[in-house]
Each structure stands twice: as structure tokens, then as C-alpha cells.
Amino acid sequence: MAKRTCKEASRTDFTISGETPTMSDITLGVQQRPADAAEKTAEAYAKLLSERDMYRHFYRDMYRHFYNEVTDSLASATRQLTATKGHLTRMKKKLAQAETMEAAAFKKTAQTIMAALRETGAI
């Protein structure tokens, strides 16, 4: 018959068994069973802590990724808007300059025509 440990002996009913462990053996087994339960609890707690840390790192990295992506996208949109405003300002200036040049050209043409009409005596 295989030898049983003190923990196993503390779990069995000794009225039928041929072995008769001593009271100190049973006491030792009784003391070891809660210690094993505490070890299993500690293992489960350590596993929970490692899972927590894993998810903490996962979500922190995921947050950083999306935060950086949104920040980059926002910065890009801001640069595009600024560039568009610059183009619009430049086009307004060119339009104003063109209107001024056109008005100056029209004025000069009108003056030339008026001078020609004066010379001919039409006016």
C-alpha cells in the first residue's frame, strides 16, 4: 500500500482504514491544508495582478496610439487650414492688385482717347 501524506490522512475517515495515524500526524495534516489553500489563493492573486498589469499596459499603449493619431491628424488639419488661409489671402491681394492695375490701365486708355479727341477738336 502506498504511503499517504499527513494531509491526505487528515482528510480521511480513520474508522475503516487499517492505518492508524497518530494525533500529531492528523494535526500536522490539518495545519498543512490551510497553508496549501493560502498558497493557492496567493497564486490566484498573483495571476490577477499580472493580468491587471498586462491590461494596464495594453490600454495605456492603445490610448497613447490613438491619442498620437488624433493629435497628428489635428495638427495636419490645422496646417492645411493655415495653408488654405494663406492662399486665400494671397489671392485677395492679387485680385486687388489686378483691379488696381486694370483701373490704372483703363484710366490711362481713357486719358489717351480724351487727348486724341481734343486734338481732333471733337471735344
Could you characterize the architecture of this molecule?
This protein is mainly α and 123 residues long. It has one domain. 85% of the residues lie in helices and 0% in strands. The chain has two helices and no strands. It has helices spanning 6-11, 23-120. It starts with 5 loop residues before the first helix and ends with a helix. The model has no long low-confidence stretch (mean pLDDT 83).
Summarize this structure briefly.
The protein has two helices and no strands. The protein is mostly helical. The model has no long low-confidence stretch (mean pLDDT 83).
Q: How would you sum up the major sheet?
A: none
- State Rg: 48 Å
Helix content estimate: over 70%
Number of helices: 2
Run of helices and strands: HH
Low-confidence blocks of residues: none
Structural class: mainly alpha
Envelope shape: rod-shaped
Average pLDDT, rounded to a whole number, is 83
Structural features:
single chain, 123 residues, 85% helix, 0% strand
Q: What's the structural blueprint in terms of helices and strands?
A:
Elements lengths: L5 H6 L11 H98 L3
